[in-house]
Amino acid sequence: MRPRRITTHKIQAMKARGERIPMVTAYDYTQAQIVEAASIPMILVGDSLGNVVLGFDSTIPVTVEDMIRHSAAVVRGAETPLVVVDMPFMSYQVDAETALRNAGRLLQEGGAQAVKLEGGKPVAPIIRRLTDAGVAVMGHIGLTPQSVHKLGGYRVQGKTDRSADELIEDALALQEAGAFAIVLELIPAELAAEITERLDIPTIGIGAGPDTDGQVQVLYDMLGLGLGFKPKHAGNYASLGETARDALERYAEDVKLGEFPTAAQSFHLDRQPAKSEETPSLSGPYGSRD
Ligand code: KIV
User: Fold this and answer.
1) Which of 67, 78, 99, 202 is exposed most, by the fewest CB atoms within 10 A?
2) pLDDT (tens place) for every residue of the chain, 290 residues total
3) Is any ligand 1 atom within 6 A of the Cβ of residue 86?
């Protein structure tokens, strides 16, 4: 029997029980399998794939088609976690009907269980339209990367009393509009704690201190998969980029020295007396390669 997928209600029940909610991004089938094996209950197919997978300098060029492709791969890789997929830039801002059509595609073609979109009070009517139509929506306030040019860079938000008050109002408006949870990105820890306290729905922090109901991180940052900049809030769990570079350097050296492959990685002809002219068959994990 298929394992049962975690629901938005289960995620909300975790807040009610005071149980912290781990979440991480994943962008492909293999990453999703690893995240599921680590018993993480919620995966974000983030539009951060624009940065870490596609090499853009922002999330702005990411399309609905990109998100559908990666979401479907993640859903194939993980059967248990709740999969939330980002609505990319301009897929929901124009009007509520366009937002609904695109959210529908992300759920139907991408196979995700929920969508996430960025913004405060101005997007509340869009969230209301989606939730009324039966779409589970996660909000996202604080640093909203799709607005990087308006915000003037990737900076901490809500540091003044006025902007902190605005973020509290934004969070309450998203909850009122039917969001099942809200990401709080790059805001002061004290403000994140206050928002978490005032909301009934879970808050999921990234660079928002320890007092949110859950935490989300970009997988590449958390695992140290890149060789360059790593945000301070990502923690120090692994340096897989360096591990991979070392392995590749050893591989390249072995190839140059003729030390790879050895007999152990090679295939050989059958040495039985030939009854007929049979063609040797080579097969591996990716199927027959005759
Ligand atoms: O796209 C993403 O990875 C995100 C996280 C930063 C929350 O939205």
Assistant:
1) 78
2) 666 999 999 999 999 999 999 999 999 999 999 999 999 999 999 999 999 999 999 999 999 999 999 999 999 999 999 999 999 999 999 999 999 999 999 999 999 999 999 999 999 999 999 999 999 999 999 999 999 999 999 999 999 999 999 999 999 999 999 999 999 999 999 999 999 999 999 999 999 999 999 999 999 999 999 888 889 999 989 999 999 999 999 999 999 999 999 999 999 999 876 665 555 555 555 544 43
3) yes
Question: What is the CATH class of 8-237?
Answer: alpha beta
Domain layout of the chain by residue ranges: 8-237, 240-268
Q: How far is the CA of 1 from the centre of ligand 1 (A)?
A: 32
Annotation says 185 is catalytic: yes
C-beta 47 within 6 A of ligand 1 = yes
Indicate yes or no: pTM above 0.70: yes
Rounded to the nearest angstrom, the distance between the alpha carbon of 25 and the centre of ligand 1 is 7
The burial class, CB within 10 Å (0-12 / 13-18 / 19+), for 90 is: middle
Token pair recorded at residue 101 = 């059509």
Q: Which protein residue's CA is at the shortest distance from atom 1 of ligand 1? A: 46
